[in-house]
Amino acid sequence: MQGAPPEQMGASYPHMFLILLLLHGANAASNAPAGPKWQTLSGRPPQVIARGGFSGLFPDSSQYAYQFALSTSLPDVVLFCDLQFSSDSTGFCKTGLTLDNSTTVSEIFPKMEKTYKVQGEDVHGWFSLDFTADQLIQNVTCKQKRTITTF
């Protein structure tokens, strides 16, 4: 019975090193002291509120943004939504008063731009109340916002 060829003798060392490193990490994690108590007034974990879902990665208030926020957050996450209504009274989540900054509505319905007075000011754009739910669902898609907020 012969051993491994000389060129393959060291091939198993990296695997053994990784296994030992994994075991050491698992042992350290099991012996870790309990973390400090949450620094909230009640001592419970902080409330996580996802406004618009995970909107840094997906378009704000899109189905994908909400699903990703639910799947990657704490168990008690609260999803916050700006509720808008279509002309047939169907409610949906969409941030902002007009639809043109976060959807493709201006490309799909270029002649449907309207002007409404909002708090005494004229606001131009595409508004959810000018469309039926079917028009929006079947034709319009979400996109990342064009405006950037800086602090």
TrEMBL record:
InterPro entries: GP_PDE_dom (IPR030395), PLC-like_Pdiesterase_TIM-brl (IPR017946). Residues 46-151 form the GP-PDE domain. GO terms for molecular function: glycerophosphodiester phosphodiesterase activity. GO terms for biological process: glycerol metabolic process; lipid metabolic process. Residues 1-28 form the signal peptide. It is an enzyme of class 3 (hydrolase). The keyword Signal applies. Its EC number is 3.1.4.46. It catalyses: a sn-glycero-3-phosphodiester + H2O = an alcohol + sn-glycerol 3-phosphate + H(+). Keywords: Glycerol metabolism, Hydrolase, Signal. This is glycerophosphodiester phosphodiesterase.
